[in-house]
Design a protein that fits this description.
This protein has 89 residues and is α+β, with helices and mostly antiparallel strands. The protein contains three helices and three strands; from the N terminus they run ββααβα. It has a three-stranded antiparallel sheet with strand order 2-1-3. Strand 1 and strand 2 (16-22) form a beta hairpin. The radius of gyration is 13 Å and the shape is globular.
Length: 89
Amino acid sequence: MLVKIYVLKDPYTLEIRYIGRTKNSLQVRLSGHCSKAKQNRFKTHKDNWILKLNIKPIIEKIEEVEGWEESYLREQELIKQYIKDGYKL
């Protein structure tokens, strides 16, 4: 199974703010993020950021990885690397 690793970007600044993974299409995953942000009683940092935008973030695939467990490991590597590079995820 191919798993997409993606980023969410601020549509105003194009800054990368989140890294995730999905088996679904990117548009389905983005809709899920936006719906969860509105409905979630206990808001995460990501939820608050999405709500503050007032428009959907940009979603872009950065890699595809074979296997769900393998994609988790790669996602964690990417998150660490992006944080090291100065991104505020």
